[in-house]
Structures are given as structure tokens and as C-alpha cells.
Design goal:
mainly alpha, 2 strands, membrane, Integral membrane bound transporter domain-containing protein, Memb_transporter_dom
């Protein structure tokens, strides 16, 4: 890598690292959450990358605003799932695969934001909500601008566009699954980690059934291994939050490399601990929640595959009948 690109990489991560090493580390987490969808957006183009951050910020703000209303939250996530599915016509569903989980985190996970008066929940005031959205949007825009310069001239293999018929089925399936899962998570499960149900659905449900099966096996295995890795990192570095953030950043970089060069399970192995380290509390909270995350991931995967298998069977039988 040339000195110029190294400098751009350092510039790209500088705001997040600076916040993570300051009393406003929770704002660094929000910047990180905005960077992820914009980074995937760069695989599609600079325009989608520029939109990804502000779109994530708006969706997260809506999610926080609906956090006390399970039915409204479920309807919103169903609508978002449908939009992600339909965006596959343009190949933008990879971006949606990050916008959706970030929104689920805002809706269920209780994001925190650091204000001059102290660290508070994003739902406590309009100022906290606006600050959360602002940091997320900043992370996305910064990534799109600096990342756009960094990746100029590079061939990036982004998600491929799919036919409208497949995108429509994808949208319906994702809307139903995410809507029901959101209602269950908000109404029946008393755990802020239940947003991992939604995260799992957004990343494993794909436009084609065969791709969903492949993604499911890779996701479950990679998530379980990544959760163990996060627990080990948190155990040995529990007294060094700055180093934890640096490790999360390195893992994210490794995930970006794996996304382009390696099988999906390797990407998941690196990204899972990065997300866990950035969105969890201290070591005790992280370790106690690891089992919950594993259970939520496995449960969502099993239900999704079962439902989609039934739908795939019905569509296949109808196709044979019409021919």
C-alpha cells in the first residue's frame, strides 16, 4: 500500500479513534455504525455510499422514537425489510443489510450518546436523538468522502442486481420475517440483545433460496466463533477501553478484506466480535450476553430457513404446474 493510501486510511479512522479514546467513546460507536453501510455502499458507487450514512441516521432516529411501541416498531421494520428487498433490483441490498441491523439496534438495543451533560440514552431527549443521528450521518458521509478517494480506480465486487421478480419475493419474505421478529423481540423478549434476531435475518435472507442456505451456515458458524473471540478479547483487555476500540477497528478492517477476498464465514468471524465490542458494555455485560446472542442468531436462522423452505417449495410446485 502506498504512503498516500496509508495516510487516507489513517484519516478515515481518525475521528472514530479520537472519540473512542475520549470521554465520548459512545459517540465513537455511533460513528462506527454509520461507517459500515457507507463502506458497503462504496462497493456499489459513490452516490449510494453518500446516501447510506444519512439514511441510516434517519432510520435509527425513527427506530429510537418507536422503541416503546412494539406494533409500530414491527410495522416500520417490515416496511424497511420490504425496501431492502426491492432495492436488490439495483444491487443496493448489501447496503440495506447494514441499515436494517443498525435500525434494529436503535429500536431495541438502547444506544447511548455522550452529551456535554453526560452519557444518556438516545431516547431521553430530542437533543440526544439529534446527536445520535448526527454522529451516525457523519460517520457515513466521512466514509463515503474519504473512502471514495481511497478506492478510486479500484475494482470492487459489490452485490449484483437481481431480476424484479426475485427482488419482489425477497422483499415479501424479508418484510414478513423482520416484522414478526420485531414484534416478538419488543413485546415478548425482555432483552436488549434481541435485536440480534433482526441482524441475523437481514444478513442471511437473500434474493435466492440457495444463497440463503449458504449464508445461513456461514453466518451461524462465524457468529458463534466470533462471539467466543469477542469474549476472549474482552476478558484479557477489560481494563483498556482504548485498546478494545483499536482491536475492534482492526477486526473491522480484517472483515472488509475478507468481504472482498474470502468466504463469507471469514467475514462474519471478524465482523461479529467488532460489532459486539463496539455495542456492548464492560466485560461482565459482554460475557453474559454472548450466550443470548448465540441463541438469538441460531433461532432466527432456523425460523428463516424453515419459512423460506416452505415458500420455496410452494413456488417451485406452482412453477412446475404452470409449465
Amino acid at each position: 500500500m502506498s504512503p498516500k493510501k496509508i495516510g487516507l486510511v489513517l484519516l478515515l479512522v481518525a475521528p472514530m479513534v479520537a472519540l473512542m479514546l475520549s470521554p465520548w467513546k459512545h459517540d465513537g460507536t455511533l460513528v462506527y455504525l454509520g461507517m459500515l453501510p457507507a463502506g458497503v455502499g462504496l462497493l456499489v458507487g459513490r452516490g449510494p455510499a453518500l446516501v447510506a450514512g444519512p439514511l441510516t441516521a434517519v432510520c435509527m432516529a425513527i427506530g429510537v422514537s418507536l422503541s416503546d411501541w412494539p406494533l409500530a416498531g414491527a410495522l416500520f421494520m417490515a416496511a424497511l425489510g420490504a425496501c431492502v428487498g426491492l432495492s436488490a433490483v439495483k444491487g443496493w441490498h448489501g447496503i440495506g443489510g447494514f441499515v436494517g441491523p443498525q435500525t434494529a439496534f436503535a429500536l431495541i438495543g438502547g444506544p447511548l450518546v455522550a452529551l456535554p451533560s453526560g452519557t444518556v440514552g438516545a431516547s431521553t431527549s430530542f437533543g440526544a436523538l439529534a446527536a445520535m443521528a448526527g454522529w451516525v450521518a457523519f460517520g457515513g458521509l466521512w466514509t463515503a468522502l474519504i473512502g471514495g478517494v481511497l478506492t478510486r480506480g479500484m475494482h470492487l465486487p459489490g452485490p449484483k442486481a437481481v431480476p424484479r421478480r426475485a427482488a419482489t419475493y425477497f422483499a415479501v419474505a424479508l418484510a414478513i420475517l423482520t416484522g414478526v421478529a420485531t414484534y416478538v423481540a419488543m413485546g415478548w423478549i425482555d432483552s436488549p440483545n434481541s435485536w440480534w434476531l433482526l441482524l441475523t435475518l437481514f444478513v442471511i435472507v437473500q434474493p435466492y433460496f440457495a444463497a440463503t442456505l449458504s449464508r445461513t451456515a456461514a453466518r451461524v458458524g462465524g457468529t458463534l466463533a466470533g462471539a467466543v473471540l469477542a469474549g476472549l478479547v474482552a476478558h484479557f483487555l477489560s481494563g483498556s477501553p482504548g485498546i478494545l476500540s483499536a482491536v475492534a477497528l482492526v477486526l473491522t478492517g480484517a472483515a472488509a478484506w475478507a468481504y472482498l477476498k474470502r468466504p463469507y464465514w471469514v467475514f462474519t468471524l471478524f465482523l461479529t466480535p467488532a460489532v459486539i465490542l463496539q455495542t456492548s458494555g464492560g466485560e461482565d455485560v459482554l460475557l453474559s450476553a454472548d450466550l443470548e446472542r448465540a441463541l438469538f442468531t441460531a433461532a432466527a436462522a432456523v425460523v428463516a430457513v424453515a419459512v423460506l423452505a416452505v415458500g420455496h417449495g410452494i413456488l417451485s410446485s406452482r412453477s412446475r404446474t404452470t409449465t
